[in-house]
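ping. complex inputs:
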Amino acid sequence: MNLRAANPAGMRPRKRLTRLALGAAVIGASALALTAMPAAASTLTNMSWTVSNNQVSATNVSYAYSFKTTTAGTIKTITFAVSGSGLGGTPTITRAYGIGAGTVSRSGQTITYTVTTGAAVAAGIPIYIELGGLTNSSTTGSYTTTITTLTSTPSTIDSGTTPAVTLAANNTAVTVTLAKSLTFTVDTTAFELDMDPSLGALADQSATVGLTVQTNANSGYTLSVADGANGLQSSGTGNPVIAKVSTGKATSVAWPGAPAWGYTVTGTGATIDAAFSGSKYAGYTAGGETIASRTGTTGGSADTISIANRVAINYTSASGVYSDTVTYTVTPNYN
Amino acid sequence: MRFVAVAALLATALAVASTAAAGGSAKPVGGARSLAVSVPADPVPARAGDVARTMIRVVNPNDFAVSVLIRSRTLALGDDGKVSIGSGPDPRWGGRIRFPHAALRIPAQSYRNVALSIRVPRLSPDLYFVGFLVTPVATTGGSVKVINQIGSFLTLDVPGPRLRLLTGHLHLPSFVLGSQASGEMRITNLGHAAVTLWGENDITSSPGGAFQQDRLGPSLLPVGRSRSIAVTGKPRWPVGIVTVTTRVTYPGRTASETRELVLTRRVLVISPWVPAALGGLIALLAAVWWWRRRRPSGNQPAGTLDPRAGQTA
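pong. complex structure:
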């Protein structure tokens, strides 16, 4: 009994050691289990696969894959294993979202996207990868793609199989080509102003030219305007001109009165140059100046732009017939 | 006879009056005129030294025939997709592309497909732009003629490996008193070839951890040009730190590899309601404190002694 009473102090370290060993074993096992997690990988969600052409043996086909990660991890490679046989072509990267830059290659039925610098990708991140330059198998049938995300080890993070895509020989491939188009309308191709300095209403007149622009160019368009090198000029003796209201849009002004020739711009849809805000007028330039623009497609509704051309004369203006040519140029922007 | 004379005088007077009334407005001499030009949406493959064949279409939507002239023009590509047409032919393509010399007459409600053959010079792999101008022949008459012309361009793709390089800046404030952080990403092409880029804005907010992925579609950036893309990020709560990560991806030397430009900014966003509510709360507390200080001591229950009175007594 005394021994039992005397020994507890000597037994404790052993018990402690045992407990420590058990604890270490539990921690080790947990760590091992955690390390081995990728082996028990989760399934990718929201998986889809579309092909730009499902004819057998079709070349230069785009395969677009989209899916959502389930497990957080550092993705280094993504493999796309297409079922069956006969996949060909040299893949190119058309677009990739949700994943870093990388390279793509094909070996047999497997396309591998290798991320240049593996980066941590959280769970629930949507990834979209569109690959071009592929050649469909020559065998008709139903195909699936098994997508696997891997670490640099490599060990699987997530995996999943897409819904099937059918490659067929007896269907009709439809290709619809939409041209990049722009329509430009002017509501009047010429106008006359019958003016007389003896009456205010006849001495200061305006002619409004309505323009409409419609385009499917994704980056929109730019509208510029120019007039003849001589301006509003008479063919009479001395070739007198009616002075421009300003040297250009940079020096636009409120209407100063006679004698002057200028224009102001309003519109809907397009972005009108700020030089014309507050009904300011500018003189045309022979070199041309941008007066309106748009940064996106117009869609189904045309943009309307109104150009109010204004002429004011007085008794200093020589009588005669004055003429000019105003040229509006619309150019689609590059996308 | 007198009646006829009076009637004639009256008619003349009315005519003069109506002329005078209309004198303040312009007389349109020509009617409306529409014109449309279409080009291939995708670049035309063009191997250096070969002949590239393509087509443009000139459409006449009017109820009358229109004659047009098609002429080569220089192009100036600006930032953010802007294009301006020059006043003269492009010397690079002089003699290498032949547009119809004479005016093309396009019947009403019809179109003309204009086939073009381009002799491609020895050029380094890149995208090249061939500018042209479609001008309707001016209507005769009228003291001021109005011409609606369309400038456009064809894109040629000379294949081969390219040297592409983008640089960029993400302009976002570090603090915003508002509902969201707004800024822009400015990307510039410093490489030797045009780049078709795409990308995404990944936005997370803390607290809340909401993740938002805004995808940016493909857009072209010629050499030396810049493009601005609007960036916005909204916190989940009235106060939050919004982390905006902009990833711009573009092809590397070949189309089988991509490069990326990753820009990240953290912005503290505080809704204007927060300081307003905080100010209101402080004002309320101050008012309560002030009211309690000014409350007369007589409010104390009867029979209790004022401790200050006790001390002074």
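Chain A touches chain B through 78 residues (CB under 8 Å).
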